[in-house]
Design brief:
Layout: H1 12-31, E1 38-45, E2 49-50, H2 54-62, E3 67-77, E4 84-87, E5 91-92, H3 95-98, E6 102-109, H4 111-116, H5 122-139, E7 147-151, H6 159-173, E8 176-182, H7 183-187, H8 189-192, E9 199-203, H9 222-225, E10 239-244, E11 248-253, E12 256-261, E13 274-277, E14 280-283, E15 287-289, E16 292-294, E17 299-303, H10 307-320, E18 325-331, H11 335-338, H12 343-351
Helix pairs in contact: 5-6
Length: 354
């Protein structure tokens, strides 16, 4: 081994310096400089009739969004027959407008439907789901979608059948398949399993206990998120990200969860029949409001997708996200929802992931 370390070697400094520079650059490249992600901007459209308003189109254009996860139909259990059947099938008012966007057919399947279906009928159900997707695409002139997304909050008891269904849809369709993934399925990976699909869509909302009267905001709360994402960077699937824009009110009667109250503006809750305090609304007398029967003593908890919480959640997720390409989808494309955010706020959410 040559010893060039002595004071008599006048080339020592020049030989070592390039090596130090090389290793410094290599270290920084691997550790300190984040890799810029390729980001695709998307919206979910979750209504059964596709009919964009002028405001919705303008907002899509200003944000340069061309990708829509479009709900084609739900699959739910038919109580009379015991079979899984399609419900809430999509109707399209403007096929020409639809053709200007990149459409990802999306199907929501209830966990109850998966739970009750016989294992021997999984392949048959997969075929029916794909055939209906094809029919809706044909009628509405959606040409060869590159991806199909299946949305289901599967459990340990339904995971095996659900994963089999996904595998069958993938085999039949010969199309890229993505599946939604909830935060609890990330945290409890060994129990929940990993769906046999090409990509996962991490749903970064509905993260708290909706039915607990003491929950602050079950839609989105960064502190709650952090309980679930410690192993996010090692999840076996490349993950896309869905973030919320919606809000609702949670109804409790005698401290028992009774349901959701949606699409009622906050300014209708006046002091004549309510007492409002710290995001809680107490009903002071029996009231019929926009079709909801509210009783004296009922409590409404206001929950929303506060821009500060959405931003903080996006930052925490981006820290842990390892794939270099990510689809960021906002839920959902609706004038009432979008009016609560300005363009710069929505732009900033997408910008976090670059």
């Amino acid at each position: 081994m040559w010893n060039n370390s002595g004071p008599g070697n006048k080339y020592t400094g020049y030989a070592i310096l390039p090596m130090l520079i090389f290793f410094t650059i290599a270290y920084l490249s691997c550790n300190d400089i984040p890799v810029e992600k390729k980001v695709t901007r998307s919206f979910y459209y979750w209504k059964s009739v596709f009919n964009l308003t002028g405001f919705e189109k303008k907002r899509m254009d200003s944000l340069q969004v061309k990708n829509i996860y479009l709900k084609f139909f739900d699959v739910d259990l038919d109580p009379s027959s015991g079979n899984a059947i399609p419900v809430a099938k999509l109707q399209v008012k403007d096929k020409l407008l639809l053709s200007t966007y990149h459409i990802v057919p999306t199907v929501f399947i209830t966990n109850t439907a998966i739970q009750q279906i016989d294992s021997s009928k999984v392949k048959l159900l997969a075929g029916k789901i794909y055939e209906l997707i094809k029919d809706i695409c044909k009628v509405n002139e959606i040409i060869n979608p590159e991806e199909i997304q299946i949305d289901c909050d599967w459990t340990v008891s339904t995971g095996m059948k659900y994963f089999s269904l996904l595998q069958k849809i993938k085999e039949i369709s010969k199309t890229r398949i993505s599946a939604t993934v909830r935060l609890h399925q990330i945290k409890f990976l060994s129990k929940a399993g990993v769906p046999p699909v090409d990509r996962g869509m991490l749903m970064c909302y509905n993260m708290g206990n909706l039915k607990n009267p003491d929950t602050k905001n079950s839609i989105i709360e960064t502190g709650e998120l952090l309980k679930y994402v410690s192993n996010l960077s090692t999840y076996p699937l490349p993950l896309d990200i869905a973030l919320p824009l919606f809000d609702w009110k949670v109804l409790f009667r005698n401290k028992t969860f009774k349901g959701l109250v949606e699409n009622i503006p906050g300014d209708v809750f006046t002091n004549s029949f309510t007492h409002i305090n710290e995001e809680r609304i107490e009903i002071l007398k029996d009231t019929l409001l926009a079709g909801y029967e509210l009783k004296k003593g009922d409590i409404l908890r206001t929950e929303d997708s506060n821009i500060a919480e959405v931003t903080a959640t996006a930052i925490e997720i981006n820290k842990r996200l390892k794939n270099s390409q990510v689809n960021v989808a906002l839920y959902h494309l609706d004038s009432v929802t979008l009016n609560k955010f300005n363009t710069n706020e929505l732009e900033s959410i997408f910008g976090i992931f670059h």
